[in-house]
Every structure is written in C-alpha cells, then in structure tokens.
Amino acid sequence: MYKALSGVLGLLMLLSPSSTCAAGTTAEVPAQVWSFKGLFGTFSRPSLQRGYQVYNEVCAGCHGLRLVAYRNLAEIGFSEKQVKKIAASMTVKDGPNDEGEMFERPGRSSDRFVSPFPNKQAARSANNGAYPPDLSLIVKARIGGADYLYSLLTGYKEPKKVTEVPEGMYYNLYYPGQLIAMPSPLSEDGVEYADKTKATVDQMARDVTTFLAWTAEPELESRKRTGVKVLLFLIILTGMLYAVKRKIWANIH
Ligand code: HEC
Fold it and tell me: What band does 27 get if pLDDT is binned at 50, 70 and 90?
C-alpha cells in the first residue's frame, strides 16, 4: 500500500512543473560572436590567456578544473618557464611516501589543476549547501554552450517583476529558474589584466568563456583544420572522378 502510494506521488512529481521554475521563465540566451565558431574558427590566444587569468584569480576560489594539466597551458601561448612558475605556485597533495604518509609539495607542470576543495562535501559546506561544478567541460555540459556561459556571467540583473530572492540566492536572468546560489563573480576591474586590456565585466566574461571553451575542446582547432583538408580533398576527388567519367564515356554513343 505504502509503495503504491509513493509510486503515485513520484509520478505526480514528475508530471508537475519543476519547482526550480517557480521564480519565472528563463530568458532566451542571445547568440554571441566567437572567434572559435565557424569552419575556420580558432581561439584568440590573447583572449585565452586573459581568460586563464580570470579563471585563476576569480573562479578558482570555488571551481576546479581537474581535467586540465598545467603543461596544457603551453598550448595557449604560455612559455615553459611561465607554466613551471604557475605550477610551482600551487600546493599539491601527494603520497604516500616511504613512511606511508601523504605529503604536500609544490606543483609540477605535469600535475592537473589543483581543486579548491578536497571533496564535494567541503565544497558544499563552503557554499551554503550548493555545489560549484568543475568547469573543465562546462561549456559542453550546458545547452547553449559558450553563449549560455557568457550570458550567465553577465546576467545578474535587477528582477523586472517583484521576485522574492531568498537569503544566499541571487537573481540571474539566464539561470534555469533564475535563482542561483553563486554570487555574481565578476565586477568592473575585478582583475588587472597582464596585457593592460580594460577589465570590464563584458570583457572578462568573454575571455573566461573563451578559455573554458578551450578547456572543453582543446582539439577544436586541429579538428577544424582536418575538416577543411578533408573537404578540399573531396572537392578535388570529385573533379577528378568527373573528368575520368567523361573520358571513359566519351566514345560510347
Ligand atoms: C564564491 C564561490 C564562487 C565563485 C568565485 C564562482 N562560482 Fe560559479 N558557482 C558557485 C556555486 C556555489 C555554484 C552552484 C550554483 C547553484 O547550484 O545554484 C556555481 C555554479 C556555476 C556554474 C554552473 C551554472 C549551471 O548552469 O549549472 C558555472 C558555469 C559557473 N559557476 C561559472 C563560474 C565562473 C566562470 C566563475 C569565475 C568567473 C565562477 N563561477 C566563480 C560558486 C562560485
């Protein structure tokens, strides 16, 4: 009896509109122009490096990037010396050593990015119970990809209608349900760019989105290069096959 009742309740919950949508309908994500979109798309190196800086100085306090190794930063234009310095500034937990103890050491280029929290529970407990997801694949993991991430980061607006925003939650136009547990991470001049670009919220959102599009698909450029080569090959092959066909059929009337 109890089982049947909970089954019916479960079904009703499935059918009812999700409670997270209670605050209002989420705004449509506007499309942005990205250098890495399109057939010949490539990542802008300066933007990638600035994006890394934003991730490192702002997002890394709460979000990990565990699928990326420090040495991968060489692919976006950092020199070997810079990569070593970045890695060495991190503390990595390693071990066990010969005595069976875990120990801490400075990072090496081959280490993956150190996560800000040792486990999910610690991450939740530091963030009001909400879990800041690892950002390595976030651009692939969300519908709308880069456009969504950019909109999310710039979508902390004043609610249009009177919406009650509970303690510890923030209104964001583009987050499903419009109430997110992440406070707006970007503020004007939040970082001082190494290349002296003006750090507006828009610029930082664009740069960090470009950087996270790269972490989600570092092979994008070589994939597109291969694609273009294959297309060229197919066009030439088609031309040759057509010429051969004309030659073979030339004498048949
Ligand atoms: C103070 C901690 C904190 C900082 C700093 C922070 N975030 Fe978050 N972030 C969170 C939390 C907590 C969540 C989970 C929100 C929720 O579940 O409502 C989150 C969620 C997200 C999500 C997932 C949204 C979704 O669709 O599920 C993305 C993407 C994200 N953050 C990107 C960033 C980026 C990029 C930065 C740096 C510019 C950043 N965050 C900085 C705490 C933070």
Answer: confident
Task: Place 22 in a pLDDT band, splitting at 50, 70 and 90.
Answer: very low
Domain boundaries, the chain: 25-68+112-217
Q: How many CB atoms lie within 10 A of CB 125?
A: 11
CATH topology of domain 25-68+112-217: Cytochrome Bc1 Complex; Chain D, domain 2 (1.10.760)
CA 146 – CA 211 distance, rounded (Å): 10
Task: Name residues whose C-beta falls within 8 Å of residue 70's C-beta, 6 or more positions apart in sequence.
Answer: 83, 86, 87, 90, 107, 108, 109, 110, 111, 112, 113
Phi, psi for residue 116 in degrees, rounded to 5:
-70, -25
* Centre of ligand 1 from the C-alpha of residue 134, in Å: 9
Structure tokens at 13: 């919950």
Rounded to 5°, angle at Cα 48 from 201 and 50: 45
CB 47 within 8 A of CB 41: no
- From the CB of 62, is ligand 1 less than 6 Å away? yes
Please determine, for residue 62, whether its predicted confidence score (pLDDT) is greater than 60. yes
184 lines ligand 1 (CB under 6 A): no
Q: What pLDDT shows up at residue 12?
A: 47
Pocket of ligand 1, candidates 20, 50, 53, 63: which has the most ligand atoms within 8 Å of its Cβ, to mutate? Answer: 63
* Ligand 1 atom 24 nearest Cα: 175
Q: Does ligand 1 lie within 6 Å of residue 186's CB atom? A: yes
Least trusted range by pLDDT, from 11-25, 38-52, 53-67, 145-159: 11-25
Tens-digit pLDDT profile for residues 132-153: 999 999 999 999 999 999 999 9
